[in-house]
């Protein structure tokens, strides 16, 4: 039996090609330290992993280490490109949550952030 109190969470995209796995490595509360790994398949069918914190890929100058992935949705645009939208939340108070949305596409063997992504 392990002494670890870390709890792992897994969210899979609706097309099952992208998976986010994270666990709380901190003390919890309003600013836990979340370690997130995103696993995805590239166009050639190979499995890849991004070990950098998820939101730092899109927002490298901001601290998003406390955000958790709630849902991953794939969207195809009119040109046949597929984007992955990550819906995130973070506890900022006893009963308050902040929400954020980031979008990525699979480009080669990495995730490329899509900036100025809006959902209407």
TrEMBL record:
It comes from the Bacteria. This is Uncharacterized protein.
């Amino acid at each position: 039996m392990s002494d670890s109190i870390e709890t792992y969470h897994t969210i899979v995209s609706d097309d099952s090609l992208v998976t986010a796995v994270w666990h709380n490595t901190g003390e919890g509360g309003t600013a836990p330290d979340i370690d997130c790994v995103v696993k995805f398949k590239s166009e050639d069918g190979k499995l890849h992993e991004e070990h950098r914190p998820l939101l730092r890929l899109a927002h490298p100058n901001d601290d998003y280490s406390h955000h958790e992935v709630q849902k991953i949705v794939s969207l195809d645009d009119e040109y046949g490109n597929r984007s992955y939208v990550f819906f995130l939340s973070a506890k900022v108070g006893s009963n308050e949550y902040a929400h954020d949305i980031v979008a990525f596409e699979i480009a080669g063997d990495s995730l490329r952030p899509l900036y100025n992504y809006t959902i209407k």
